[in-house]
Write a structure and sequence with these properties.
Elements (H helix, E strand, L loop, with lengths): L1 H41 L6 H9 L8
Length: 65
């Protein structure tokens, strides 16, 4: 009985780790791509940066970050 409970605990722990990795890994990849896109987009000339920002973010709701 103790072996079964130990196995159950191991399975639960590994499952939680797996879900954690499954959730965080795509988010980190997406965030990295977004940051890279933003940095490359910010390297344009400063004169049209504000206008691009307005065009890019006007149709989206304001986000705090």
């Amino acid at each position: 009985m103790s072996f079964v409970s130990k196995l159950d605990r191991i399975i639960k722990i590994s499952f939680t780790y797996f879900m954690y990795i499954l959730v965080l890994f795509p988010i980190s990849i997406f965030w990295r791509l977004l940051v890279r896109k933003n940095t490359s987009w910010n390297q344009k000339t400063n004169s049209d940066t504000n206008w691009n920002k307005v065009e890019k973010w006007s149709h989206r709701p304001q986000t705090p970050f």
